[in-house]
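Structural prep section.
Before we set up the soaks we want a predicted structure of the protein with FE2/S2 (inorganic) cluster in place, mainly to decide which crystallisation condition to try first. Input record follows.
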Amino acid sequence: MPSNMNKPPSRRGFLDWIVALGTMITTVAVSIPGLMYLWPAAKGGGDENVEVEGASKMATGQGKTIQVGSQAVVVVRHRSGFKAFSAVCTHLGCLVKWDQSAKAFLCPCHAAIFDENGKVVSGPPPAPLPEFVVKEIGDKIFVSAT
Amino acid sequence: MGLGKTVKQFFDDRYDTKLAGELISKQAFKRLPPHTGWLHVLGSLSLLLFISQTITGIMLLIYYRPTPEAAHKSIQFITAEVQFGWLYRQIHAWGASIMILAVILHMTRTYFMGAYKKPRELTWVTGVILFILTITFGFTGYLLPWNQIAFWATTVGTESANKVPVIGDWLQYFLRGGDAVTGETLSRFFVVHVIILPWALTGVIVVHLFLMRMSNLATLERVGEEAPLKPEHGIPFFPVHVAKEGVVVMMMLAVLVTLSVVSPWEIGEPANALETPPHIKPEWYFLPSYQLLKYFEGPYGALMGIIGCSVPFVLLLLWPFLDRGKERHPKKRPIAVVFGLFGLLGAMFLGYLGHISETDQSFFGKRYHITLKGWPEPIDDSTDAAPPTH
Ligand code: FES
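Run finished without errors. Recording the tokens verbatim:
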């Protein structure tokens, strides 16, 4: 056992220790609000129902990009009804476009192709396009994230 | 008593002006090693470009507005309405690219001349930090015009951040100031670009210069065997080296103004969050990483890509501690020279592939479509007219 363990701490050593501890606590106390300030203030959004303008005029096979909260979403009218997928490519965030003739979502950045169900057909994306919820109320179409 | 004398007297009465004068003249007339030549002005060139960027940056700040609604319009205003606004904007845009080039050339010179070796390891490390800060300057400044290409290059660039393990999502959210690139991102990038980075860079430059002056410039002699520099053999910093730097300043200004006139940067379309333009590519200094990232695929691809792109920077930072050989002369360090050339040419090659990827090119009279990964695929002109890439 080191011999100085048995020695009572000197007044000087104790004060040094208090000052060091105080400096540490002050640093932490000052930094935490600062870091919290820098953290983006949540804006929310994306869970509201957004109406697809002119949905009834869309032909079968046609697609349209709309904004739901802060997210871009592609709505496509199929024979069986409307489907909506996030337009944000799961690779690096470019916006995919619906290609009516290919019946696929194409990403302009690294040439990824997603099928009409949002599954990756080719290209670098690691995951399918997340699907959005479509509600038909009367002849109006609404899209939401949940 | 003349005014000059009165002023001198004022200071003499209050400060140890003799000491201050000695310090200044010691620095000004310091002798540099005899082989100090034109290649040794690349560091000062980087510094001068930083000063030019600061001045033109402050000038642009007078008219620039960092909001999504006003940013693009304010750049148009600077270019079209403000007298000589176009010139300062062009010099700032070109200056950024040339500053990065100057830093890379300066590092290349230091590397091949073995100047990073003991006792100058920390000068090198601070230099690598300056390099990283300089490209961060480029990345944050690129978004500020809020045009399509900048908006989407930043979207893709910050998207890569979320591939960092564990903290990726937070990091991306923090960088963007939210889920997507918005006005919050613009504000953040603006603050980092005009306040944080300039001061950070200034601080590290001061340390870098201080370290450099303390150990003087390296010679090509072996580590630990440098003969003391005889004053009569050295090159005086002032006026000889300073005169060279003066010449470089003139040339730099001439190049900047010429490029600004001959090849101006376009303002581009304003950012549109609902439309990604085709084939967005980052600035030339990010092209090697951009291309390298494409080769990492599969579930761990993104993570491996991030690691792959970080390795060169980590290697650069640690290099003086890894290469502990005593030789400085490039002819006596074949392995380090080959390694350096390999790294440099590799980066240039990847950058070139990134530049030509997803375009059609002609080589030796034949046309090829260059794929995403840079493979050339022959285009059969006889059967189909090559579809335009855009
Ligand atoms: S961002 Fe869509 S393929 Fe890369």
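Observations: Residues 3-38 of chain A form one domain.
Flagged for discussion at group meeting.
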